[in-house]
Every structure is written in C-alpha cells, then in structure tokens.
Amino acid sequence: MRTLYDCGQSEARQDGLRAAAGAVRSGRLVVLPTDTVYGIGCDAFNSGSVRALLRAKDRGPDMPVGVLVGSWTTIDGLVLNVPAQARALIEAFWPGDLSIVLPHAPSLAWDLGLTKGTVMLRMPLHPVAIELLREVGPMAVSSANRSGQPAAASAAEARDQLGDSVAVYLDGGPSGDPVPSTIVDLTGKEPLLLREGAVSASAVSEALGTDVATAG
C-alpha cells in the first residue's frame, strides 16, 4: 500500500520520514524530493532493492544507479580514495546539484548495476532528503520516473508513473525546473564532464582550476 506524506506540515513530515526510514530498512522503495527532480530510492547496500528500483523504472542494469549521501564525510568509506579534485568539487558544490563519479571501495558488497567498479555520488541540497539520508545512510537513487518518461517534478507526478511499486512518497512540494545534476567523471587521468546540468561547465572548470573536457 503506497502512502503519501505532505512534508510541508511538521507532523506529517516526521511521520513520513519515520515511514520512509522503515521502508528503506525493510528493503522497500521510497520517493523523496531533492534539489533537482524527485528521486526513487532504496538502501544502496540491498541488491534486491536496487533490482526492484530498476524494475519500477523499467530500466536495466546497463544504466546503473547513483548514490546519495547525507554528509561530506560519508564518501570516505565508499570510494577507493578521494582525490584533491573531488575535494575541490565537494567544497564548491555540496550539498547541491553536482554528481561525482569515482572508483568505489572494492570491499563494498553492493550491486548498483554495470558500474565497472565506479560509483556516482551526490549530496543533495534538500532538508527532507538530507534528514532521511542521515537516518538510513547512503541510498541508491534515480529520477522518479519510468524509463523514457519525463522526470517527476512533484510527488504526484512520481506517483502517477510509479504507483504501488513505491511504499512511501515524501511530498516536499514542486521541485521547480526539472534540471538534472551535472556529472563529472574523476576516474581517468583528467576530469571529464559527462553531463552538463544545473551546474555549468564553466563553474566546474573554475572550481578545479582547469578546463574540463566534455564527453562525446
């Protein structure tokens, strides 16, 4: 049974966060607001939940899921190392709408799709998302829409697309323009801009102190 909580009301927000945390811990899916578009998420370390997330989106493992974190320091336990360029981007844009791709720690028992040993990380700038992430830890999160459909800019739009595949919907109000995060790949010798989204390429270059190449 899907349940929607209006996080604009204090009591409903706390009830919703408790319900969402319980759902994540029990392997179910939740929809949460972020500073870009709404996301569908689950426990990043529960491979069954990640597969359920991909099924809900009608998407295969060839399009792996990124991970949202609730603090800067969380990533130290998730990646092989945090290079100076990653620190510079984190200091400049986190929490915010910039995603960073790094080699993940080999010891981690997770299955986010065909990641080729990497993970895409972001700390969102949304109080509801941050509170949930700090309660349950890293979450595998993708945009809350069916594959090929527009990204959801509201909880209602997400519910229309995802329906009962999601246990809890956290309604944090409209997300504004549905602009995705910018993605920077730091797994190679030089930083590579995989997608220019809410953060401009020039802003990324300025933070790194060097021009950033664009993929493709």
TrEMBL record:
One of its GO terms (molecular function) is ATP binding. One of its GO terms (cellular component) is cytoplasm. It comes from the Bacteria. It catalyses: L-threonine + hydrogencarbonate + ATP = L-threonylcarbamoyladenylate + diphosphate + H2O. Residues 14-199 form the YrdC-like domain. Its main location: cytoplasm. Pfam families: Sua5_yciO_yrdC. The keyword Nucleotide-binding applies. GO terms for biological process: regulation of translational fidelity; tRNA processing. Keywords: ATP-binding, Cytoplasm, Nucleotide-binding, Nucleotidyltransferase, Transferase, tRNA processing. It is found in: Cytoplasm. It is an enzyme of class 2 (transferase). InterPro entries: DHBP_synth_RibB-like_a/b_dom, Sua5-like_dom, TC-AMP_synthase_SUA5. PROSITE patterns: YRDC (PS51163). Belongs to the SUA5 family. This is L-threonylcarbamoyladenylate synthase. It comes from Tamaricihabitans halophyticus.
